[in-house]
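Quick one, tokens below:
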């Protein structure tokens, strides 16, 4: 087992109010679109209950090859303000990563949001999985920005 720990912090400003970003997270079909990191990847959310104490399950991988399972527990959800959850990534019976992730939304002025996303990840399969989180969230946030701007 090759254990690797890292904390990733992403800070972005969006030309949309916090309520718009929160709604884009809550709507699972919308989130499946913006959270997919590339045209060759796919995310499928099978069940979702985004609230404090809620759970979520999903699958991800290459298009048509959703080999990895996601298990999420929401620990603190404050509408339009914060979403904190733990996320486990599994390959069959092997846990690959466990992460504590927080989306912190702060209003800036009338119609803008400062988002800080903190991803405290433990990989049981080496540093490459941390790189996957880094690349995945970098692209997902760019997709989210495009979504909330285009739909504004």
């Amino acid at each position: 087992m090759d254990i690797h720990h890292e904390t990733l912090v992403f800070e972005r400003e969006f030309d949309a109010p916090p309520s718009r970003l929160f709604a884009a997270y809550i709507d699972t079909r919308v989130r499946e679109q913006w959270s997919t990191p590339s045209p060759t990847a796919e995310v499928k959310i099978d069940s979702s209950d985004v609230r404090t104490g809620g759970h979520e399950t999903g699958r991800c991988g290459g298009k048509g090859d959703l080999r990895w399972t996601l298990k999420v527990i929401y620990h603190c959800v404050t509408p339009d303000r914060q979403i904190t959850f733990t996320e486990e990534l599994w390959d069959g019976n092997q846990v690959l990563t466990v992460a504590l992730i927080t989306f912190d939304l702060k209003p800036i002025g009338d119609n803008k949001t400062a988002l800080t996303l903190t991803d405290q990840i433990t990989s049981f399969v080496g540093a490459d999985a941390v790189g996957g989180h880094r690349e995945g969230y970098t692209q997902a946030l760019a997709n989210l920005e495009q979504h909330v701007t285009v739909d504004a």
